[in-house]
Write a structure and sequence with these properties.
Order of helices and strands: EHEHEHEHHEHHEHEHEH
CATH topology: TIM Barrel
Number of helices: 10
Bound molecules: 1,3-dihydroxyacetonephosphate
Distance between the termini: 12 Å
CATH class: Alpha Beta
Helix content: 40-55%
Strand content: 5-15%
Strand order of the largest sheet: 1-2-3-4-5-6-7-8
Largest sheet: 8 strands, parallel, barrel
Length: 263
């Protein structure tokens, strides 16, 4: 556990219904009411459910942040199907994902588009979670750190140090996403340390403050081990964020890591 304030996000991906999403956020917000002061918690519902989720969070005066899974980097215009940073802000969004491996590998986004998105989000004053991570093949070829470095340097190209206070990096090894195969705490820690070295080289003045969180089959049973590592500042949770009974204990494991560190 580090001195940085942990960040735990629930990435709901393309799951649930309006009713299901409403029940999920109600359950999570009520279970955590009054508890989450020492850490940042965010949920990333499908875009069409953002307003409903926001309204439930607002009614409860919940500190849980509203996140969006994607954005288009242009301000407005003829971009059928897309939404802008301003539109998302208008709906109460505070944080946006960029570079998620499913957008890189399933939808086919390249580093240049991801870089434009990161820029638009940070220049728009919102928080950005930039996701990086290697595929199984790249890992087996011993290229984990090289791939992470390429994705970091290209994702952050041209982004000035003054903008990165709102940046969180998520290390999500592709082979661990949705597979039940989690990186060991030691493997994740090593990858996080290498990522921090790259950030230090790029943003010497502020790199120590930037949070690096882990994603990939985080569950209630393995969260404490991961969050207890010095270089792991929280998590980005997929499947387990869809169940109140799984997400809440994961958030609590992160809060516990803060308490243990201060004892
Ligand atoms: P899982 O937790 O389902 O492996 O997904 C991780 C992820 O992709 C979060 O963005």
């Amino acid at each position: 556990m580090s001195e940085r304030r942990p960040f735990v996000g629930g990435n709901w991906k393309m799951n649930s219904t309006l009713k299901g999403a409403s029940e999920l956020i109600r359950g999570v917000a009520d279970a955590l009411a009054g508890e989450i002061a020492p850490i940042d918690v965010a949920v990333f519902p499908p875009c069409v459910y953002l307003l409903a989720v926001k309204s439930i969070l607002r009614d409860r005066q919940s500190p849980i942040m509203l996140g969006a899974q994607d954005v288009y980097p242009e301000a407005e215009g003829a971009f059928t199907g897309e939404v802008s940073v301003d539109m998302l802000r208008d709906c109460g969004v505070q944080v946006i994902l960029a570079g998620h491996s499913e957008r890189r590998h399933v939808i086919g986004e390249d580093d240049e588009l991801i870089n434009r998105k990161v820029k638009a989000i940070l220049e728009g004053g919102l928080r950005c979670v930039l996701c990086v991570g290697e595929t199984l093949e790249q890992r087996e070829d011993g290229r984990t750190h090289e791939v992470n470095e390429i994705q970091l340097r290209s994702g952050l190209a041209g982004i000035a140090e003054g903008l990165v206070d709102n940046l969180v990096i998520a290390y999500e090894p592709v082979w661990a996403i949705g597979t039940g195969q989690t990186a060991t705490p030691d493997d994740a820690e090593e990858a996080h340390e290498k990522i921090r070295e790259v950030l230090k080289d790029m943003y010497d003045g502020v790199s120590d403050r930037l949070r690096i969180i882990y994603g990939g089959s985080v569950k209630p049973g393995n969260a404490a081990g991961l969050f207890g590592q010095r270089s792991i500042d929280g998590g980005l949770i997929g499947g387990a964020s869809l169940k109140i009974a799984d997400f809440v204990p994961i958030v609590r494991a992160s809060m516990q890591s803060v308490r243990s560190a201060s004892e």
